[in-house]
Design a protein that fits this description.
By secondary structure, the chain is of the alpha/beta class. The protein has helices at about 5-10, 40, 60-75, 85-100, 115-120, 135-145, 160-165, 165-175, 190-205, 225, 250-260, 265-280, 285-300, 325, 340-350; strands at about 30-35, 45-50, 80-85, 100-110, 125-130, 150, 180-185, 210-220, 260-265, 310-315. Helix 5 (about 115-120) links the parallel strand 4 (about 100-110) and strand 5. The longest helix is centred in the middle third of the chain and has 17 residues, at about 190-205. The radius of gyration is 20 Å and the shape is globular. Bound molecules: ligand F0G.
Length: about 350
């Protein structure tokens, strides 16, 4: 059977009607993968990764973008407009391409990972590189809300969060239970707001328990941790290089109502977690997407996690989006002559355990 998108799968819980087109690129229903090596090494046998990097454009953004695009079409818009650190722009560009809309994307100049920029270009978006940070670009987008025929598809568009909440439903369906804790990266704070909404809805609808929400920000871009906007956010995790999140209150509410936390992790810890996801689990995450694991590892070190807990880390974006960071500090392999003897020696030398 073909793969249905989030509107087909979860339409009954979304603000759609017969007038809403069923926009889809086959987004959603990404795998929930049980950790094989990191979990056991942390004495957490029930650690899972929700691999959102397997969405059609390689990030979780496609869920909300499917619904936002559908609602924009329903309203007669001809252009999708967004500011983005990269993934939102790639997603908007793809859905616009598929449905014959224009995509206009405002990116922080020099602040977007190569793979994401390549996507936006390949999907045919009009790209504006703004001299400034993501926050400056979002300010411009907000000021353009009155242009006729234009739909803003940042997460200030309520349909983005509605579509995004389907990821929370999936986690519970796939795990067969509500996890004890959910760890996810926080930038503009739409995602944590949407997950919390999903868990609250399941709680109200089906009486399910609520998980604790743990949001990881990068240390140089952690306004929700310090309590004040950051004028010049800095971090290697460009996806979450955001100084003044639009869904600020949503993140605080998710933290407080769930008895969770919003915490900062260093770039070094993010990169170490990213390497472990690749080398120990076979999962490529972009840097932002490794921040939750970095936070979890620290909390385990601090003795804050009980070993029987069911924990889900959301891997929000595919590592292929940011090859520069992925290969930083690595050396390209030297070439060898095509000699069986030579290569036999190399292959026979040692095997990895695990
Ligand atoms: N992870 C990835 C890979 C992201 O691209 C983003 C946000 C986040 C986490 C944080 O999610 O903003 O809802 O708190 N990316 C946005 C973008 C800002 O423009 O692509 P959030």
């Amino acid at each position: 059977m073909y793969r249905a998108g989030v509107i087909a799968r979860y339409g009954r819980y979304l603000p759609v009607s017969d007038a809403t087109p069923e926009v889809s690129l086959g987004e959603g229903w990404t795998p929930l993968i049980r950790s094989r090596r990191i979990g056991p090494s942390l004495d957490l046998p029930q650690l899972f990764f929700k691999y959102e990097g397997l969405n059609p454009t390689g990030s979780f953004k496609d869920r909300g973008m499917a619904l936002a695009t559908a609602k924009a079409m329903e309203a007669g818009a001809h252009t999708l407009l967004c500011a983005s650190t990269g993934n939102t722009s790639a997603s908007a560009a793809a859905y616009a391409a598929r449905y014959g809309l224009r995509a206009f994307v405002l990116l922080p100049a020099g602040g977007v990972a190569k793979g994401k920029l390549a996507q936006a270009m390949a999907y045919g978006a009009r790209i504006v590189a703004v001299r400034g940070a993501f926050d400056d670009a979002l300010k411009l987008v907000r000021a353009l809300a009155d242009v006729p025929g234009v739909a803003i598809v940042n997460s200030i568009n309520p349909f983005r969060l509605e579509g995004q909440k389907t990821a929370g439903f999936e986690v519970v369906e796939q795990l067969g239970a509500v996890p004890d804790r959910v760890f996810l990266p926080v930038g503009n704070a739409g995602n944590i707001t949407a997950y919390w909404r999903a868990f609250r809805e399941l709680h109200e609808r089906e009486g399910l328990p609520l998980p604790r929400m743990h949001g990881a920000q990068a240390a140089g871009a952690a306004p929700l941790v310090t309590g004040k906007p950051v004028a010049r956010p800095r971090t290697i995790a460009s996806a979450i290089r955001i100084g003044n999140p639009a869904s600020w209150e949503g993140a605080i509410r998710a933290r407080d109502e769930s008895h969770g936390s919003l915490e900062a992790v260093t770039d070094a810890a993010i990169l170490a977690a990213q390497r472990r996801l690749g080398a120990e689990e076979g999962l490529l995450a972009e840097p932002a997407s490794a921040a939750p694991l970095a936070l979890l590892i620290r909390m385990v070190d601090q003795g804050l996690i009980a070993h029987h807990e069911r924990i889900v880390c959301i891997v929000t974006g595919n590592g292929l989006k940011d090859p520069t960071t992925l290969t930083r500090g690595l050396q390209l392999p030297a070439s060898v002559v095509p000699s069986v003897d030579r290569i036999r020696k190399l292959v026979s030398r040692g095997r990895r355990k695990g």
